[in-house]
């Protein structure tokens, strides 16, 4: 069985981190080893996803169910037959100065000894970098949003410019 636990204070508001973790279809853009992620079914507070983990030619496809408790928690479980247990928990708590505490826990056990290399080569290394990957993505999206809403000097309409 593979387990990974991590707690970190991050310099962004809770909603920013929650939104990045909840956006599973963007995972291939920034989460190491995730080649594909597609939502199969969605309702107000949950969705089912098919995800593909890959390194070179080694690939593993599986389904998960994600439950969203905005903005405090995200739970990701799999009943896929390749796992005895697959459980990821994200918990978010606000801190002072628009920061948040992120608690991440992964518990994974594969059913087949034949698939143990998948666990060793794919899932464990990915778990060790998960929080960092999501933190980088959230900072990138926050910076992009700030650039969109902050007008550059000289970009104000002529009527709004002041001559002093």
Topology:
Blueprint: E1 2-10, H1 14-22, E2 34-43, E3 46-55, E4 58-69, E5 73-77, E6 83-95, E7 99-110, H2 116-149
Antiparallel strand pairs: 1-7, 2-3, 3-4, 4-5, 5-6, 6-7
Protein name: Ribosome association toxin RatA
Pfam families: Polyketide_cyc
Family: Belongs to the ribosome association toxin RatA family.
Biggest sheet: strand arrangement: 1-7-6-5-4-3-2
Structural class: alpha+beta
Q: Tell me the Rg in angstroms.
A: 19 Å
User: How far is it from the N-terminal to the C-terminal residue, by CA?
Assistant: 69 Å
The CATH class of the domain at 2-23 and 66-146, by name, is Alpha Beta
Task: Give the overall average pLDDT.
Answer: 87
Provide structural commentary:
The protein is an alpha+beta fold and 164 residues long. The chain has a domain at 2-23 and 66-146: START domain (Alpha-D-Glucose-1,6-Bisphosphate, Chain A, domain 4). 26% of the residues lie in helices and 43% in strands. It is built from two helices and seven strands; from the N terminus they run βαββββββα. Strands 1-7-6-5-4-3-2 form a seven-stranded antiparallel beta sheet, with helices on one face. The longest helix has 34 residues, at 116-149. The termini are far apart. 21% of the residues are buried. Belongs to the ribosome association toxin RatA family. InterPro entries: COQ10-like, COQ10_START, START-like_dom_sf. GO terms for molecular function: ubiquinone binding. One of its GO terms (biological process) is cellular respiration.
């Amino acid at each position: 069985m593979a387990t990974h636990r991590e707690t970190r204070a991050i310099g962004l508001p809770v909603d920013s981190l929650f939104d990045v973790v909840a956006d599973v279809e963007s995972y291939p853009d920034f989460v190491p080893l995730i080649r594909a992620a597609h939502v199969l079914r969605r309702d107000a507070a949950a969705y089912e996803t098919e995800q593909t983990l890959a390194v070179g030619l080694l690939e593993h496809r599986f389904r998960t169910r994600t439950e969203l408790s905005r903005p405090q928690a995200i739970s990701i479980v799999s009943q896929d037959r390749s796992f005895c247990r697959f459980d990821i928990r994200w918990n978010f708590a606000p801190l002072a100065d628009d920061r948040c505490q992120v608690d991440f826990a992964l518990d994974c056990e594969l059913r087949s000894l034949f698939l143990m290399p998948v666990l060793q080569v794919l899932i464990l290394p990915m778990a060790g970098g998960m929080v960092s990957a999501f933190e980088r993505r959230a900072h990138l999206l926050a910076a992009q949003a700030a650039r969109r809403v902050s007008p550059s000097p000289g970009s104000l309409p002529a009527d709004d410019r002041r001559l002093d």
